[in-house]
Specification:
Keywords: Membrane, Transmembrane, Transmembrane helix. This is DUF1440 domain-containing protein. It comes from Candidatus Segetimicrobium genomatis. The radius of gyration is 18 Å and the shape is elongated. The protein is built from six helices and no strands. The protein has one domain. The longest helix is centred in the middle third of the chain and has 31 residues. By secondary structure, it is mostly helical. It starts with a helix and ends in a 10-residue tail after the last helix.
C-alpha cells in the first residue's frame, strides 16, 4: 500500500512541478514575444541536434516531444520526493539529509545543463531556470507537506530533529 501512495503522490507532485516550470517559461517566452520558444528550443536540441538558438523553429512536434520528456523527468523526481517524504514522516531526523540532498541535486542539475546545453544557454538565462525550479520545488514541496502532516507535527515537537532520548 505504501508503494501505491508513493507513486500516486509522486505522479501528482511531478505534474505540479512540470506544470509550474512550463507555465513559468510560457510567461517568460510570451513577455519576450516568442511564446513556446523554450520548449521548442530544447526539443530542437534533443531531437534535431540544433545548437544555434537562431535556427529554432517553433513547431508543435518539438514542443510536445520535449514536454513528454519534461513531464516524465518531473514524475521521476516527484516519486523520489514522495518516497523521501514518506521516509521523513517515519524518521523526522532524516529531513536534514533530504534538504542537503536536494541542494546537491539542484547544483548537479545546473552543472549538467551547463555541460549539455552550453550553446543554448545564451538564449536560456540561468536565472530563469533557477526561478522555474524554485517555483516547481515550492509547489511540489507544498503538496507533499500537505499530504504528510505528521512531518510538520514532529518538527513542531522537535525542531532540530532530536529524539526523546536527546539524539
Amino acid at each position: 500500500m505504501q508503494l501505491n501512495r508513493i507513486l500516486r503522490e509522486g505522479f501528482i507532485a511531478g505534474c505540479i512541478g512540470a506544470g509550474a516550470v512550463a507555465l513559468w517559461f510560457l510567461v517568460v517566452d510570451t513577455i519576450n514575444g516568442r511564446p513556446f520558444f523554450t520548449p521548442a528550443m530544447l526539443g530542437s536540441a534533443v531531437f534535431w541536434g540544433v545548437h544555434d538558438p537562431t535556427q529554432v523553429m517553433i513547431e508543435y512536434s518539438r514542443i510536445i516531444g520535449y514536454t513528454m520528456i519534461h513531464v516524465s523527468a518531473f514524475v521521476v523526481v516527484g516519486c523520489i520526493a514522495a518516497a523521501l517524504a514518506a521516509e521523513v514522516e517515519e524518521a523526522p531526523s532524516t529531513l536534514f539529509l533530504v534538504v542537503v540532498g536536494f541542494c546537491f541535486f539542484e547544483f548537479g542539475f545546473y552543472i549538467l545543463v551547463a555541460i549539455l546545453a552550453q550553446p543554448l544557454l545564451g538564449a536560456l538565462a540561468w536565472w530563469n531556470v533557477a526561478i522555474g525550479n524554485a517555483i516547481a520545488a515550492l509547489g511540489m514541496g507544498y503538496y507533499l507537506w500537505r499530504e504528510h502532516p505528521k512531518i510538520g507535527e514532529e518538527l513542531k515537537r522537535h525542531p532540530l530533529g532530536e529524539t526523546q532520548e536527546g539524539e
